[in-house]
Amino acid sequence: MSQMVRKQIYIEPHQQALLKRLAETLGVSEAELIRRAIDEHLAGRQSVFPPPDTAAWEKAHRFMRALHDRGPIEGKSRDWDREDLYEERLSRYEHHSD
User: Fold this and answer.
1) Domain residue spans in the chain?
2) What is the CA radius of gyration of the chain?
3) For 49, which DSSP code?
4) Confidence class of residue 45 from pLDDT cuts 50, 70 and 90?
5) Are the beta carbons of 46 and 40 closer than 8 angstroms?
6) Can you tell me the distance from the alpha carbon of 96 to that of 75, in angstroms, rounded to the nearest whole number?
7) In angstroms, rounded to a whole number, what is the distance separating the alpha carbons of residues 22 and 96?
8) pTM
């Protein structure tokens, strides 16, 4: 193995959560993923991440279209806004990145 140089970086909590999850999925260290991302970026290539699961995205899209096509639920109104969803998602990332 070549000599390594230690670097300390700061990343957002959601980036840490994604990095940790991808490292576990691929069975490599977080540092290895960061090294790969740097190599890929500097080489001008696409990405170190696996290609998207097209079938899963198509299934999700069909589900969302079906919900959209059904229209609003009679007698129900939305009781949340985009900011509520954003705050909830951030709190989940912060919880998982401990």
Assistant:
1) 54-96
2) 19
3) S
4) low
5) yes
6) 36
7) 13
8) 0.45
